[in-house]
Every structure is written in structure tokens, then in C-alpha cells.
Amino acid sequence: MTKEFIPYEEARQLIELGYYTQSVSGYSYPKRILANEILFQQAFRFFRENYKLEGRIERDDDGELYKFRIYYYMSNSKGLVAYGVNKESYEEAELLCLKKLIQLVINEKKSNTLP
Q1: Which of 42, 61, 86, 106 has a CA 20 to 30 Å removed from the CA of 26?
Q2: What is the pTM of this model?
């Protein structure tokens, strides 16, 4: 089950980018994170909903290796922003995709083009 959770360093970076946990009462609040607290699906949803960036993990053309693609969605179109090299496992490609999403947002925030 631990492979479902993002590593601590990436979780820390998500908090810095504005990731908040949802409480039972419905209020969002910053939270001290512990190792293995944020699921990959939650992290990918964060980028989709807040930055219009969608990360996808796919098999390569031969079906033996995995790669990732990141799309930016605008009103009625999408554009490929980044893609990753082939990896032997889905989990490797997933982690690389997450790291690239974080890097993209950090770089864009530095250049003041993202909220």
C-alpha cells in the first residue's frame, strides 16, 4: 500500500505550492504532513484542479515500458507541456511525472505566470 503515497519531499513541496487537506467539516487548512500522507491520485488532482495540468502515465508503443505526458488544458484545447522517458515500472514513471509537475509549477511561479 505504501506505493500509493507520494514521498515526503514531494509532499512537502505540494504544501508549499498550496496543497491543503480537507477536514470533515469541509474547511481546508494547512497541515503538518507526515510521511505517506498524500496519495498520488490526490496530488494529480491538485495539479488538475489548481493549475490545469494533467499528468498521464502510459505504456510505450511496444507495451513494455511506461512513460508520462503532461498536458495543459485551456478553454477548448489542450497542449502537451512535457513528456518523460521510458521506465520499467508504472511507479517510476508516476513519480517522475509528479516531480515534473512540481518543477513546472515552481518555475512558472518564479516567472509570475501562475497564481
Answers
A1: 106
A2: 0.82
**pLDDT per residue over 35-46, tens digit each?**
558 899 999 999
Question: CATH number of the domain that 39 lies in?
Answer: 3.30.160
Domain that holds residue 27: 2-110
C-alpha to C-alpha distance for 110 and 67, rounded to whole angstroms: 27
- Residue 115, in any domain of the structure: no
Domains contained in the chain, number: 1
Closest of 11, 3, 12, 5 to residue 91, by C-alpha: 3
